[in-house]
């Protein structure tokens, strides 16, 4: 299972999750899109690459679900995606984001195992729910 953290989230989050997952021996690998594909890469460029390795993405960019060209790419490349939705326009602080991902990490992995891509979930302040 390859999970990619979008560049709108700190690459250190991906590094930390990767370190924490290694001794778990569940085959979970965590990558930063920024570190793997370069800072500023367009969504249209990384989506096919992540799709080719059957990757799952965690992002704060919920507009990807509404932009027709990006939505089509997500579907065509059979990506599973989790949108981290902050409770307000201000967004999460760094530590709030880390806490939200860590708090939901086991459920995220369970949902990945239990759903065939393409799929989309939103992670809100209170729950994770399927989109569509």
Indicate the CATH class: Alpha Beta
Q: How many beta-strand segments?
A: 6
Q: What is the straight-line distance between the termini?
A: 23 Å
% residues in beta strands: 15-25%
Spatially, the strands of the biggest sheet line up as 2-1-3-4-5-6
- Which CATH architecture is right? 3-Layer(aba) Sandwich
**Poorly predicted residue ranges:** none
- Give a quick account of the main beta sheet: strands, pairing sense, barrel closure: 6 strands, mixed
| Helical run tally | 5
Number of individual domains: 1
Helix content: 40-55%
Brief synopsis:
By secondary structure, the chain is of the alpha/beta class. 42% of the residues lie in helices and 19% in strands.
Can you lay out the helices and strands and say which pair or pack?
Elements: E1 2-5, H1 11-21, E2 29-32, H2 33-37, H3 43-52, E3 56-59, H4 68-76, E4 80-84, H5 94-114, E5 119-123, E6 128-130
Parallel strand pairs: 1-2, 1-3, 3-4, 4-5
Antiparallel strand pairs: 5-6
Helix pairs in contact: 3-4
Give the tags.
alpha/beta, Rossmann fold, 6-stranded mixed sheet, 5 helices, 6 strands, about 20% strand
Structure, explained:
- The protein is of the alpha/beta class and 132 residues long.
- The chain has one domain: Rossmann fold.
- The chain is built from 5 helices and 6 strands; from the N terminus they run βαβααβαβαββ.
- It has helices spanning 11-21, 33-37, 43-52, 68-76, 94-114, and strands at 2-5, 29-32, 56-59, 80-84, 119-123, 128-130.
- It has a 6-stranded mixed sheet.
- The longest helix has 21 residues, at 94-114.
- The chain is globular, with a radius of gyration of 14 Å.
- It starts with a strand and ends with a strand.
- The mean pLDDT is 93.
């Amino acid at each position: 299972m390859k999970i990619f953290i979008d560049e709108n989230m700190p690459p250190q989050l991906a590094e930390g999750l990767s370190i924490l997952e290694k001794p778990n021996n569940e085959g979970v690998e965590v990558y930063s899109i920024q570190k793997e594909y370069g800072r500023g890469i367009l969504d249209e460029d990384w989506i096919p690459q992540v799709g080719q390795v059957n990757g799952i993405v965690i992002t704060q960019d919920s507009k990807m679900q509404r932009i027709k060209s990006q939505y089509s790419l997500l579907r065509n490349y059979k990506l599973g995606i989790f949108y981290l939705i902050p409770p307000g326009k201000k967004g999460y602080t760094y530590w709030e984001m880390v806490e939200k991902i860590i708090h939901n990490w086991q459920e995220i992995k369970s949902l990945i195992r239990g759903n065939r891509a393409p799929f989309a979930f939103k992670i809100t302040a209170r729950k994770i729910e399927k989109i569509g």
